[in-house]
């Protein structure tokens, strides 16, 4: 394996492979308990989420190599989308001890690195995961197809899906909420989708809540997000920065996802900002 060979030139490396959901978290927890310096994870954003959850609160650092279709978090750090190039960048970060402590979000006890999505985008991710085998072949176009399917067929845009309370301030009638721990929210091809420049790994959370879901509002939001460094507050969009605590509730269950990993439906979701939760190996770009 190229990754093993490259890292083994300067480090003692042990390789483990995951084959089911939750494996990466258990492997990461074991590495932390054994006092390993770092875990280098190779996979997509779902793998990232599992490994970060296993390492949070420990002294073992996380280094992430892009092995998925979008690789939002790795690219947000400035690393290449090409795993071979990113390997060199991450390897340089390891060799030069370029390790920093970052904040994470936590939703109902599970950590997330870059965002939590409640409502519409979780419904999109659920549709994508139904076609997991196609995802490996088709990649990002499958997300676009699923987004259209959820928008026009499966996600009810006529009625609100939850109520939001942010640091004690209530926002009724939420249709779709994104909680950011970093920016961008995602990528469309090479284009970053920027929801808030205030979102950063060394700051508190940012909560973006859509209080209606209309086609003109969504088109305007997407265009602004790919053309600028963040979207604006409007009659249909509420944006809160420097957020520590979010409670989302509703009598009927609503879907949610963390770092692009669909986690089912809940009637209550508690999201917290967790400062200095994870040691992260940052790539060195040369």
Features:
286 residues, alpha+beta, Tumour Suppressor Smad4, 2 domains, ten-stranded antiparallel β-sheet, two-stranded parallel ribbon, 14 strands, globular
List the helices and strands and how they pair.
Layout: H1 2-8, H2 23-33, E1 38-43, H3 45-55, E2 61-66, H4 72-76, H5 83-95, E3 99-107, E4 110-112, E5 115-119, H6 120-130, H7 132-138, H8 140-154, E6 162-166, E7 169-174, E8 176-180, E9 186-188, E10 191-193, E11 205-210, H9 215-227, E12 237-243, E13 245-258, E14 261-281
Parallel strand pairs: 1-2
Antiparallel strand pairs: 3-4, 3-14, 5-8, 5-13, 6-7, 6-13, 8-11, 9-10, 11-12, 13-14
Helix pairs in contact: 1-5, 2-3, 6-8
Could you please describe the fold and organization of this structure?
By secondary structure, the chain is an alpha+beta fold. The chain has two domains: 2-110, 3-Layer(aba) Sandwich (Rossmann fold); 114-274, Tumour Suppressor Smad4. The protein is 33% helix and 35% strand. The protein has helices spanning 2-8, 23-33, 45-55, 72-76, 83-95, 120-130, 132-138, 140-154, 215-227, and strands at residues 38-43, 61-66, 99-107, 110-112, 115-119, 162-166, 169-174, 176-180, 186-188, 191-193, 205-210, 237-243, 245-258, 261-281. Strands 3, 4, 5, 6, 7, 8, 11, 12, 13 and 14 form a ten-stranded antiparallel β-sheet that branches. Strand 3 (99-107) and strand 4 form a beta hairpin. Helix 2 (23-33) runs parallel beside helix 3 and helix 6 crosses helix 8 (140-154). The protein starts with a helix and ends in a 5-residue tail after the last strand. 42% of the residues are buried. The mean pLDDT is 91.
